[in-house]
């Protein structure tokens, strides 16, 4: 059968990224407590395409996915990035894996347990010189209490749920759990899936006693990350979904050198 993709293209325009996007696939990721955790990822896989090539072979991306779906690790991602280039005759390769990661979390007073889900991403690339770049990204929901509202109000203070997004490049493995714990320690209070009355009283009062702007949250997270010699680059953003405004409050910090 004729292979159209192998035919020559005469427009003389190279493509930076071509491949598959939005593929949902079962994978296993490293779990600090249980060893491995099964989850469902949304995956994108791409390579460059030289100017003379008409197309790439899309089905080969899915075939290669079987090489590492049993476990997502730094080693397996490094291998598949190089395999993508070798199999498809490319100079560069890219992979994006986004998945929900679940942690069992106990309520602060009663100890009742529930599962919290955190959206995580692993972004990988390899250039023509086999220089690889890996970024771990974790989105953590938080609660924040407005310091200004607390200061000026006769009764109470407005509070809201927010989200902190941390991305990091690193020398050695970073546990997802450690990044989540770091962020939650810098919030006014954690978010929980199960809260009884005693727990609700506790988190409400804890947040009230620890008011923070989005500026405070990103600075506190950045302060800890800057002291970690394993982190070579990071970005951290905080967005509060304001309860008394029709807009969000937002802050962002980036630190370190990119590859």
Short description:
This protein is α+β, with helices and mostly antiparallel strands. The protein has helices spanning 58-65, 74-88, 147-152, 176-185, 197-208, 214-226, and strands at residues 15-31, 35-49, 93-106, 113-126, 132-145, 159-170, 231-240, 249-256.
Strand content: 35-45%
Q: Helix and strand string, N-terminal first? A: EEHHEEEHEHHHEE
User: What CATH architecture would you give?
Assistant: Roll
- Could you list the spans in which at least 5 consecutive residues all have pLDDT below 50? none
Number of helical stretches of at least 4 residues: 6
Number of domains: 1
CATH superfamily: Urate Oxidase
Roughly how many Å apart are the termini? Answer: 43 Å
Principal-axis shape equals elongated
How many strand units?
8
- How are the strands of the largest sheet arranged? 1-2-3-4-5-6-7-8
Query: What is the CATH third-level topology name?
Result: Urate Oxidase
Give the class-level CATH name. Answer: Alpha Beta
Largest sheet: 8 strands, antiparallel
What is the radius of gyration?
A: 22 Å
| Helix-strand category | alpha+beta
Helix content range of the residues, please?
10-25%
- Report mean pLDDT, rounded to a whole number: 92
Features:
259 residues; alpha+beta; Urate Oxidase; 8-stranded antiparallel beta sheet; 40% strand
């Amino acid at each position: 059968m004729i292979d159209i993709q192998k035919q020559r293209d005469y427009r003389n325009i190279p493509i930076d990224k071509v491949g598959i996007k939005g593929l949902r696939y079962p994978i296993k990721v490293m779990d600090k407590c249980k060893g491995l955790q099964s989850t469902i990822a949304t995956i994108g896989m791409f390579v460059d395409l030289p100017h003379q090539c008409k197309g790439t072979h899309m089905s080969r991306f899915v075939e290669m996915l079987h090489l590492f779906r049993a476990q997502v690790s730094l080693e397996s991602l490094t291998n598949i990035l190089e395999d993508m280039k070798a199999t498809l005759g490319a100079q560069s390769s890219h992979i994006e894996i986004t998945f929900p990661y679940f942690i069992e979390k106990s309520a602060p007073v009663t100890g009742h347990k529930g599962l919290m889900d955190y959206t995580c991403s692993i972004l990988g690339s390899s250039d023509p010189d086999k220089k690889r770049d890996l970024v771990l990204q974790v989105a953590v929901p938080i609660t924040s209490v407005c310091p200004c509202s607390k200061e000026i109000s006769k009764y109470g203070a407005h509070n809201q749920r927010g989200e902190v997004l941390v991305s990091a490049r690193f020398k050695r493995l970073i546990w997802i759990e450690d990044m989540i714990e770091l962020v939650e320690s810098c919030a006014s209070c954690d978010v929980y899936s199960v809260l009884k009355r005693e727990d609700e009283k506790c988190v409400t009062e804890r947040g009230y006693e620890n008011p923070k702007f989005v500026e405070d949250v990103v600075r506190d997270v950045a302060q800890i990350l800057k002291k970690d010699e394993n982190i070579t680059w990071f970005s951290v953003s905080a967005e509060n979904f304001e309860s008394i405004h029709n807009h969000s409050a937002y802050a962002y910090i980036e630190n370190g050198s990119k590859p």
